[in-house]
Prior knowledge:
Layout: E1 2-4, H1 10-14, E2 18-21, E3 33-36, E4 45-53, E5 59-67, E6 73-81, E7 84-87, H2 91-96, H3 101-104, E8 108-111, H4 125-141, E9 151-153, E10 159-162
Antiparallel strand pairs: 1-3, 2-3, 2-4, 4-5, 4-8, 5-6, 6-7, 9-10
Amino acid sequence: xxxxxxxxxxxxxxxxxxxxxxxxxxxxxxNPLVEEATSFTRTDVGLFSAVAKFAxxxxxxxxxxxxxxxxxxxxxxxxxTRMGWVNLMSAGVMRALSKYSGDIFPMDVYLxxxxxxxxxxxxxxxxxxxxxxxxxxxLKALKYDPFTTKTRxxxxxxxxxxxxxxxxxxxxxxx
Length: 175
């Protein structure tokens, strides 16, 4: 099944699904058409389900883009937020997050099902699978619904305090 990258459901990441970018000249580089994949060729750009561990200790569902023509070098990291998938490596996001960069970077990313041809990971495939698997219970416990309006959420994930009911707070009175 072909879908756009930003339409990938977070549940598919929890399942450890991998995708390949469908080769086409008319692709949106920030939201390409992808299809599920279990193997990759040397010319493919693959997307891998992952967990990103930020410097502040939080964990987030992620999709990592790797270019196999560059020996599996990581190109982009999409993190699931209340606004959907956001590419942390894009210039605008990096500029917007610069104030919080100490909370995010350095960031470690662990793939659910790394490719054996990925030279960047090489002998650490089991480590990636183990860290991903151990992170799943905590990730699944959070509610990832980008369209909810009844709950206040941090930019990068889980539910926080319920929003106050309309009219529950009184505006300040003037003297």
